[in-house]
Specification:
Helices cover about 40% and strands about 15% of the residues. The chain has about 325 residues and is of the alpha+beta class. The protein is elongated and about 75 Å long.
Length: about 325
């Protein structure tokens, strides 16, 4: 067996021993583990290292050292189907150098957890079995501790009296908080939050029953707006897009949302929210007519993109 094949085979055995789900017991996950340890062909497990490494560098590393050529669109598979589970299992740390880094930041990095590193350096030695047993006994405690640390970095959002929502850190979540806490009280007072997305969890908050009562049922494949508010006084559904990186409610997005919410018993109002006027200026030529624009750094103002009424639904 070639050195690279032996290391991949060893990594697969380790993933099984650590209790990773069957969906992560594959070559992709084995190569991710080797990349986290910088175990290039010819090295031994006691030479394992702990570099900070991102998803694309992991894929580049696998191509360079193990001739495994992953297509660029495999990046999300690596992130969602391997690295998420490594983090959840407590064997890998996420952004240990900057815990406040946004979830979808291109600078996101991973690093093998120190206790996991010590364990893996003993693989193939007489101490491996005992070390593994000790590690697994402590593993649950580690996972819980890291979960608490991640929770501490979440952004709290007041959604109703006595109720709060926690969003992943980042500019996008800050804007969602501003929509709920600043935009809604000013322009839709007394409105009820139905949905709020999050970069870390697309369905972070979703009152499916309320939306269904208004005539709309969506599945998890529907491309939801970032925030949905029910302005109960006027029976309007405010569909709000939070723009920090992706585009505003343009003609294409307007049509998509109109189809998705076509069964609504409430009138539909389309809103694009920007953090500031500088970002808004980049998208002015794209914004659809008969929609509204709100800018978080000027929260008491609303910009109306033409039409026969200021704020309200159109037939």
């Amino acid at each position: 067996m070639k050195p690279n094949d032996k290391l991949i085979d060893d990594a697969l055995k380790i993933l099984v021993a650590l209790g990773l789900p069957r969906a992560q017991q594959n070559e992709r996950s084995a190569l991710c583990l080797l990349a986290l340890l910088n175990l290039t062909p010819g090295k031994t497990w006691r030479q394992s290292e702990n570099p900070l490494i991102g998803i694309t560098p992991i894929m580049d590393w696998a191509r360079k050292h193990y001739r495994k050529d992953y297509a660029p669109n495999t990046r999300e598979t690596v992130r969602r189907q391997t690295m998420h589970q490594f983090v959840d299992a407590g064997i890998t740390l996420y952004n240990p150098d900057s815990s406040n880094r946004p979830v979808n930041s291109p600078k996101a990095v991973y690093q093998i957890e120190p206790m996991a590193l010590a364990l893996l350096r003993s693989y193939g030695t007489r101490k491996w079995r005992q070390n593994l047993e000790n590690y697994l006994a402590e593993c649950g405690t580690l996972t819980n501790r890291y979960a608490r640390e991640r929770q501490q970095n979440l952004i709290p959002v007041q959604i109703a009296r006595g109720k709060k929502l926690a969003l992943s850190p980042g500019e996008h979540s800050e804007l969602i908080r501003a929509i709920i806490e600043d935009f809604a009280p000013r322009f839709a007072p007394g409105s009820v939050l139905i949905y709020a997305g999050d970069t870390g969890d697309k369905w972070s908050y979703f009152d499916a029953d309320l939306l269904a009562a208004l005539g709309v049922e969506v599945d998890t494949h529907g491309k939801m707006p970032d925030v949905i508010l029910h302005f109960t006084e006027r029976n309007w559904l405010l569909l709000v897009e939070s723009v920090t990186s992706h585009g505003p409610v343009d003609g294409k997005r307007h049509a998509e949302l109109a189809r998705l919410f076509s069964g609504s018993k409430a009138g539909l109002v389309y809103v694009t929210a920007f953090p500031n006027r500088s970002i808004m200026s980049r998208h002015l030529g794209e914004i659809a007519w008969e929609t509204e624009v709100w800018v978080a750094d000027a929260p008491s103002h609303l910009i109306h993109f033409n039409g026969e009424r200021f704020l309200g639904p159109y037939p």
